[in-house]
UniProtKB/TrEMBL annotation:
<feature type="domain" description="UDP-N-acetylglucosamine 2-epimerase">
    <location>
        <begin position="22"/>
        <end position="351"/>
    </location>
</feature>
<dbReference type="InterPro" id="IPR029767">
    <property type="entry name" value="WecB-like"/>
</dbReference>
<dbReference type="GO" id="GO:0016853">
    <property type="term" value="F:isomerase activity"/>
</dbReference>
<dbReference type="InterPro" id="IPR003331">
    <property type="entry name" value="UDP_GlcNAc_Epimerase_2_dom"/>
</dbReference>
<protein>
    <submittedName>
        <fullName>UDP-N-acetyl glucosamine 2-epimerase</fullName>
    </submittedName>
</protein>
<comment type="similarity">
    <text>Belongs to the UDP-N-acetylglucosamine 2-epimerase family.</text>
</comment>
<keyword id="KW-0413">Isomerase</keyword>
<dbReference type="Pfam" id="PF02350">
    <property type="entry name" value="Epimerase_2"/>
</dbReference>
Length: 364
């Protein structure tokens, strides 16, 4: 079969790579389509190099824009490509605008659609990603869930059991496959850091970085935490301008966005990670590193229930208190079932095993 695999932004690359490999190992013809949602070398090229992803077969070059502009541009560029390639199946990952745009096009164009990371729900409709997740799942034929809570969400929304496949977490496939190489990174030396001697921070959710007042509050909390544990913050381009305007407190060091191997190394050696990222909540759980999530909710509750994640919200005082508590008594690590490095093999089993994709029932 011919399978189009879609990627568009930083958190897509480490999810699509193992899926592509597993499909190709079983003889599928994979066409990698890059939408161009992220394009800076530090947000894009470094991941292709670090993860050994081949250059995209097709590049849509959509770039940045409002939600409607970006989603619309991806749709307009992807529609003729699907007509030209006439794939049997399209695979989308995650919850970004490119995911939804390609899902909508596919659902109307005819190929089957598989969503990797289906069923995650924050139940927070102010997050653009929640809209993307729910709408993508609704038009998908194959709902590939990373965890039992995600499968349960889908069942509760009325999806049929034969659409829901609990396969595990592909992001952890990539993490485990690259952990040794990441541990060989010299990033700690380059930044003058020692293992266990710093905290790692990422911030890029619109709710945290778009409003200067909210961001200033978070920075105040980081300044207090840095008094106990110095912090390093690889800056997402979305937050760069505002961080520079507000200025960061002493003890908080801004650095460039890190490449994949460097960032895994930075997480692995951190005393604590403070983040609003989805993927980082999962990677810290897999690595057993304490994680404090600077959000009121998470679409990844398994990282709290079984992993090392604690939700701290966005109130500065509560964040500081939570970090002190976590530093005093780090949570015990436990890696969720099926976060075992073999999720993409199970996905290939579902998509290519027993029977052809075309016999799969469509959504009702
Ligand atoms: C997007 C995803 C988000 C994901 C994040 C991962 C959506 C709605 N959001 O958010 O779910 O967690 O990627 O990092 O799809 N920019 C650059 N260079 C780049 C890319 C972006 O400078 O290579 C800047 C531009 O000013 C752009 C802004 O960042 O307007 C936001 O980029 P965009 O892709 O729209 O959303 P993200 O915040 O990156
Ligand atoms: N990541 C990275 N460098 C960074 C920040 C994150 O390589 O400076 C990686 C991280 O290890 C994870 C992924 O990017 O694999 C998460 O992407 P991001 O936080 O941008 O998006 P989200 O997961 O929130 O959608």
């Amino acid at each position: 079969p011919r399978i189009v695999c879609v990627a568009g932004a930083r958190p897509n690359y480490m999810k699509i790579k193992p899926v592509m490999d597993a499909l190709e190992r079983r003889g599928a013809e994979v066409v990698l389509v890059h939408t161009g949602q992220h394009y800076d070398p530090a947000m894009n090229d470094v991941f292709f190099a670090d993860l050994g992803i081949r250059p995209p077969d097709r590049f849509l070059g959509v770039g940045s824009g409002s939600h409607a502009e970006q989603t619309g541009r991806v749709m307009t560029a992807f529609e003729p490509l699907v007509a030209e390639l006439s794939p049997d199946l399209v695979v989308v990952v995650g919850d970004i605008n490119s995911t939804l745009a390609c899902a909508l096009v596919t659902a109307k164009a005819g190929p089957l659609l598989a969503h990797v990371e289906a069923g995650l729900r924050s139940r927070d409709w102010s997050m653009p990603e929640e809209v993307n997740r729910v709408a993508t799942d609704r038009v998908s034929d194959y709902l590939l869930a990373p965890s039992p809570d995600a499968a349960e969400n889908l069942r509760a929304e009325g999806y049929r059991d034969d659409q829901i496949h609990l396969v595990g977490n592909v992001m952890i496939d990539t993490l485990l496959a690259n952990l040794e190489r990441a541990r060989a990174s010299d990033v700690l030396g380059r930044y003058g850091l020692s293992r266990g001697g710093y905290g790692l921070v990422t911030l890029h959710r619109p709710a945290n970085v778009d409003d200067p007042g909210v961001l200033a509050g978070l920075l105040k909390a980081l300044g207090e935490i840095a008094g106990r544990c110095p912090l390093v913050l690889p800056v997402h381009p979305r937050a760069a301008g505002r961080l520079a305007d507000i200025g960061v407190p002493g003890g908080v060091r801004l650095v460039e966005p890190a490449g994949y191997l460097d960032f895994i190394a930075l997480q692995d050696s951190a005393r604590v990670v403070l983040t609003d990222s989805g993927g980082v909540q999962e990677e810290t759980t897999a690595l057993g590193v304490p994680c404090v999530t600077l959000r009121d909710n998470t679409e990844r509750p398994i990282t709290v229930e079984e992993g090392t994640n604690v939700l701290a919200g966005r109130d500065p005082e509560r964040i500081v208190a939570t970090v002190h508590r976590v530093l005093d008594a780090p949570p015990a690590p436990r890696r969720p079932a099926l976060w075992d490095g073999r999720a993409s093999e199970r996905i290939a089993d579902v998509l290519l095993g027993g029977g052809t994709a075309s016999t799969h029932p469509r959504p009702t």
